[in-house]
Write a structure and sequence with these properties.
With 344 residues, this protein is of the alpha/beta class. Helix content is 40%, strand content 17%. It contains 11 helices and 13 strands. Helix 3 runs parallel beside helix 5 (95-115) and helix 5 (95-115) runs parallel beside helix 6. The two termini are 29 Å apart. Bound molecules: nicotinamide-adenine-dinucleotide and uridine-diphosphate-N-acetylglucosamine (UD1). Nicotinamide-adenine-dinucleotide (NAD) is lined by residues 7, 9-13, 30-36, 59-61, 82-86, 101, 105, 123, 125, 178, 180-181, 200.
């Protein structure tokens, strides 16, 4: 079976690609390299050259290119939609860029996918909940008004997909609300590869550990949390990858049209604790200081994770320590190989 991954050269898409390849699926990757590099394809080939993904370089906001792509690949069994811009900060500075890319991109994709009734998985985020009144966060918690255009694109994206499934009995879709994906593939040949200064915590920690950056700033320690720093639900990216495959399999045999699942371990870990755990597992001390809180950060978010386990049979295999170690191995690989994300 052939699966299309939009944004498949990005962090999560590339990991899902390796999983699909290893299970014998053919993969078509669509990407415009706005936040990735062709080097990622070479890394994917280094992991598995026997069943290589097909790369189609195009922008999903381009209707004509998308239509042509789906005519060319008329034997698809499903689509996983990762392609989006994901910087919360940048989305506040450049809202139109985010609404255009994430919403127009989704709408154009939906037109071709719905017309063919192809099962669709959508990369959503726990950001849709804002600061939930209830912890752990269940899927039926209401959306809170988002503080960022990025967050709004995920809320709107889910609504647009849900509304579209309600008009076509044959069209099925699922929104996966990721909590905080971290870590890298077991081979350490792919991982999270920020083009600019990392905004996410774990790549920042590993870059400080390798000496690329002087210090980690911990954004605030006066929150109403056990140690004052923010609490998140970190999940290994390969466990997250598995959730996509289970999701697709579920859609192929499901009766209903639209599903929503949290994907997290259900374990709340503070920023300070995560840094400590990294130091413990790697024996490297991380130079850090406490700074002002980052605008828009919610104090606590962790999942009630049982729905996906019960309904899809998803069983996470990796601990947070294993995820941290894998991220560290990837950073070391990047350092020793001299690879650069700009290498085309
Ligand atoms: P990423 O930036 O690494 O990957 C996204 C990929 O999509 C990139 O390769 C980029 O070049 C491509 N892309 C973006 N716009 C495109 C367009 N118009 N046409 C074609 N390609 C385009 O991001 P990621 O971390 O892999 O995230 C994947 C998805 O998961 C995103 O939708 C993101 O919002 C969502 N998500 C990520 C996280 C996280 O912490 N990484 C958490 C929750 C949700
Ligand atoms: C963020 C987005 C989320 C998005 C995800 C994708 C917010 C609130 N949420 O998740 O919607 O889907 O990124 O990239 O922005 N931290 C530091 N120092 C750093 C970096 C982070 O202390 O240098 C802290 C943050 O304050 C946060 C935690 O580490 O408490 C995790 O941060 P991050 O990895 O950016 O993820 P989120 O902010 O949870």
């Amino acid at each position: 079976m052939k699966i299309l991954l939009t944004g498949g050269l990005g962090y999560i898409g590339a990991h899902v690609c390796t999983l699909l390849q290893s299970r014998g699926y053919r993969v078509v990757i669509v990407d415009n390299l706005v936040n990735s590099s062709k080097q990622m394809l070479r890394q994917l080939l280094a992991i598995d050259s026997k069943n290589p993904p097909i790369l189609e370089l195009l922008d999903i906001t381009n209707t004509k290119d998308l239509e042509k792509l789906f005519q060319q690949h008329d034997d698809l069994s499903g689509v996983i939609h990762f392609a989006a811009l994901k910087s919360v900060n940048q989305s506040i500075q450049k809202p139109l860029k985010y609404y255009h890319n994430n919403i127009i991109g989704l709408i154009e994709l939906l037109k071709v996918v719905e017309a063919r009734s192809l099962p669709l998985i959508f990369s959503s985020s726990c950001t849709v909940y804002g600061q939930s009144d209830v912890l752990p966060i269940t899927e039926n918690q209401p959306f809170k008004p988002s503080y960022s255009p990025y967050g709004f694109t995920k809320q709107m994206g889910e609504q647009i997909i849900k509304d579209t499934t309600s008009t076509n009995e044959q069209f099925k879709a699922m929104s996966l609300r990721y909590f905080n994906p971290i870590g890298a593939h077991d081979s350490a040949l792919i991982g999270q590869w920020p083009i600019n200064e990392p905004e996410n915590l774990v790549p920042y920690i590993t870059q400080v550990a390798i000496g690329k950056r002087k210090e980690l700033k911990i954004f605030g320690d006066q929150y109403d949390t056990p140690d004052g720093s923010c609490v998140r639900d970190y999940i290994h990216v390969m466990d997250l990858a598995e959730a996509h495959l289970l999701g697709l399999e579920y859609l192929w045999s499901s009766k209903s049209n639209y599903y929503v699942f949290n994907v997290g371990l259900g374990e709340g870990v503070s920023v300070k604790r995560l840094v400590k755990r990294f130091e413990e597992v790697t024996k490297i001390s991380i130079n850090h200081r406490i700074t002002n809180p980052r605008e828009g950060d919610v104090p606590i978010a962790y999942a009630e994770a049982s729905k996906i386990q019960t309904q899809l049979g998803w069983i996470p295999k990796y601990s947070i320590d294993e995820a941290l170690l894998s991220a560290w191995k990837w950073e070391q690989y990047l350092d020793s190989s001299g690879l650069s994300i700009d290498s085309t």
